[in-house]
Amino acid sequence: MAERTLTPPEARPVAPPRPARRTAWRGELGRLLEVVALVGLVVTQPLLDVLGRSPDFFLFHRAAPADVLLLVALIAVVPTVPFALLGAVSLVVGRVVRAAVHTLVVGLLLAALAVQVGRHSTPLRGVPLLLLAGVAGAAAAVAHRRWRAPGRVLRVAAVGPLVFVGLFLFASPASAVVLPRGHSGAAGVAGAGVHPPVVMIVLDELPLVSLLGPDGRIDATRYPHFAELAAGSTWYRNATGVSGWTPYALPAMLTGRYPAEPVAPHYSRYPDNLFTALGGLYEIRAEESITRLCPPSRCDQPASPEQGLGVLVRESGKLLRQVTAPVDSHVDPEHSYRELTRAEAGLDAAEPVPADPKFRWDALNDNQPARFTSFLAGLRPSSRPTLHFLHLLMPHAPWRYLPSGAQYAAPEDLPNDGAGWVDLARQRHLAQLGYTDRLIGETLRTLRATGLYDQALVLVTADHGVSFLRDWQGRGMDAINHAADQVAWVPMFVKEPGQRAGRIDDRNWQHVDLLPTIADETHIRVPWRSDGRSAKQAPRDRADKLFYDTPGEPVPITGGVPSPPAPTVPDPLVGTRVGDKPAGGTATVTNLAAFRAVDPAAGELPALVWGSVPASVRDGTKLAVAVNGTVGAVVPVVPPDQGGRRFAAFLPDDRLFVAGANRLDLYLVGADGGLRRLRLS
């Protein structure tokens, strides 16, 4: 037997130890991948999901493809950077501290994810939801610390942000804005006859009932210029939009086809539309807002300045706060749709200020939307037939204009529904409609001054309405089911060339009828099939209508010309002078400082007052709000909203205010009508 020699342990070769620093970096990379996965779920996915379904957000803010790509890169990368820096700093401390910091980060991110999941799957909101999410985050962090499997899953899931970016760029409706496909829109065929200039204004979020007086006609006292328009045109009183959502409603109007797919309101997705049909013969001057249906081959870029990346980042930050909040929020990029004024956009006025005796026309001119200014500037006769098109987000929210044209400030999160709030929302809507009436008047004045009025086919309408019925406010299916007369029925005025007298036509008009009607009036044959029926043809036999909350899913609605709303009787205290009254409590007015230095000439007034009163003041108690001794509004005390507000009062009468310091007083209104003055802070 061969003799075996044993090597002493101390003589055996020893493998070199793995460098501690390399191990630390490898571990940090794994931890970073876990954070990337969680940030992708908490930030990247919800933001890109909302934005991907909102191509109109990018179109309204005039975002170039490069702006959108940079925004997507920022959303996917920047939220991870602080955690990466924290991990790099933690390399200089001990392993125990490093692991504890990572566990804390994972727990916080998992708790943030639990808030989003809990808001969609449980009835909990606010502090209870935060507590539940905290417990869930802590439990998940403990599991992550004890077992390896959760960390492995997260490291694999680190590919998530790349997947979310890919879905946004190639599969979302917004992809058409970033990566537009080619277009081959068909041009119409010119027929025999005159090709008149076309002036078309599409307003937004304007129910017909908002314009009606008690007699069912346009309220000429409140809206004299709409009444003037009706007096010289054909008013289709039974006209309905096709959808409560502009990205579906407006393409249906301009293509003559009902919405079939949830795609971007972009020329690459709707190549055949009014602009291409008339574009072979007509010069196109189009001011679009949240659509881009006119292709570059037919239209120049809008005249107003680009809004660009800065506003995209700011509004995306607001969206992030909404999607991560532990309370319900209607995450809607439309909240950022505020038309820039002429002054903000740096545009010159289209016309000199007219000698108009109405109060504060100068403020109207100063605060005139830039898009409207550009539209007015283009209303000039031309040797070539011209389509003048304007889609203006008026009287669409956010509501910030008084009928005079003066602006006022308001909290962005002010509720629009519930006791007291829905009435306030409708008051503000009607005030902004009064301002819109002034814009219609300026359009009619300009058309007459340039000689276009008699020559042109003039169309004024709105894409959809909105419900102000309590508990069913808005434009969704609930509003359609309970207040279709406010959501679907819209104003529709058509003034033919040379028309002098007004008339009313109660045929079953649906907005897919708009394109065929324009084609007949301009003697253009549209080379594609339309779902609409020209007003030159016999009316429809059927009385029912089709409405689309979701493309491809028509909802039949019935009804005819809407009845005027019940008249609102103002509180008898409104307009009265208030003398000395006994003190009796306190109130907090958030914007009290705005009354210390008012400058009406600047076109801004503190016309909305909001705040709170002590819990001892019961809900339903009336508050009288007086400016400089005159009561301007009487409002109820309501349960606190998310911002803690228990009242808000709207003061649309400019005559309440004076230049300089203004006195604001709030009074509790007793059951006997007596007033007690509240001390304000």
TrEMBL record:
Q: Where is this region: Disordered?
A: 1-20
Q: Which UniProt keywords apply?
A: Membrane, Transmembrane, Transmembrane helix
State whether keyword Zinc applies. Answer: no
Is Transmembrane set as a keyword in this record?
yes
Which spans are transmembrane here? Answer: 29-48, 68-92, 99-118, 124-144, 156-179
Q: Where is the Sulfatase N-terminal domain?
A: 372-521
Q: Pfam families under this entry?
A: Sulfatase
**Gene3D superfamilies reported in the protein's UniProt record:** Alkaline Phosphatase, subunit A
- Taxonomically, the superkingdom here is Bacteria
Protein name listed in UniProt: Arylsulfatase A
